[in-house]
Write a structure and sequence with these properties.
The protein is α/β, with parallel strands linked by helices. It has helices at about 5-10, 55-70, 95-100, 115-130, 165-170, 170-180, 195-205, 205-210, 220-230, 265-275, and strands at about 20-30, 35-40, 45-50, 75-85, 105-110, 140-145, 190-195, 215, 240-245, 250-255.
């Protein structure tokens, strides 16, 4: 039903996005275009999904990866995936199915290699800051289940001066904070899902949370909703509903999240890309 995405997938030419791409999230409740998040090469262009609907969050991320890939040639974008879904969960194979469909580079990072992957991205940030490449390829970091990665959880330092040491700067939680702050202007964006507001607070400090302009909320308490988007609206959401909030634009939109990509649809996309 998403005509814009269908046109991109059917096109035989790479679109001219001019550095502005969209990640479609679902069908709007109002009569308008499908709900989407826009990624530009400017500060704050990340997405944080919060709520306990694991399948809906996975569907949003899997479909979003396909949408972002459709707006980049294989040489223009790279995807790094931290999949925190349990090994015995049916959702554990979804990202693998998407990887099989897309011709782009998709790195599925094992749990024990997460610190190294974040360190590599920190190095990429430094290279791009001092490099001469005008428009380096986009990198999208997907973190499914931020609450499950203890290595990324912010560390409470006993002494303020310890934050200035080289050891502190090389910690994965500090490197993630740097990615959130410095990444978007250099073409590196983070799309993360976390189950509750409490785990968001354990994982990200206030400054890091301010670097994320786009947030999607599933049903939660009025207090948690107010803390995340300055409004209790997420408390009134029903089943199969979510809120898309943009801090930059000051907008809040209710929508119906897309379901998991069906196998037949994935097969059709794969055939289109091969053609």
């Amino acid at each position: 039903k998403n005509e814009s995405l269908a046109a991109l997938l059917a096109s035989r030419q790479s679109p001219d996005t001019a550095g502005v791409v969209r990640m479609w999230l679902g069908e709007p409740v109002a009569i308008k275009e499908p709900t989407a998040v826009t990624f530009r090469r400017q500060s704050g262009c990340h997405l944080l999904i919060i709520g306990q609907q694991e399948e809906a969050a996975m569907a949003m991320m899997a479909g979003g990866m396909i949408a972002l890939a459709a707006q980049h040639s294989p040489s223009q974008a790279r995807f790094i995936v931290l999949d925190g879904s349990p090994a015995d969960s049916p959702l554990a194979r979804v990202f693998g199915q998407v990887k099989d469909v897309l011709p782009h580079r998709i790195d599925l990072v094992e749990y024990r290699a997460v610190a190294d992957a974040i360190g590599d991205l920190a190095g990429e940030i430094e290279r791009r800051q001092f490099g001469e490449e005008a428009t380096p390829p986009a990198i999208f970091l997907f973190v499914y289940g931020l609450q499950r990665y203890r290595v990324l959880r912010r560390q409470e330092d006993g002494f303020s001066f310890s934050m200035d040491s080289e050891g502190a700067k090389s910690q994965p939680d500090r490197q993630l904070a740097d990615l959130l702050r410095e990444g978007p202007p250099l073409g590196i964006h983070v799309i993360a899902w976390c189950d509750t507001h409490a785990t968001v607070e354990r994982s990200l400090d206030r400054n890091s949370l301010r670097e994320i302009d786009n947030r999607v909320l599933f049903q939660m308490s009025a207090a948690d909703s107010s803390n995340l988007i300055d409004s209790p609206l997420a408390n009134k959401l029903g089943v199969n509903r979510a809120l898309a909030y943009s801090e930059e634009q000051g907008t809040t939109e209710k929508f119906r999240p897309y379901a998991l990509p069906p196998a037949a649809w994935l097969a059709r996309i794969k055939a289109q890309w091969h053609r």
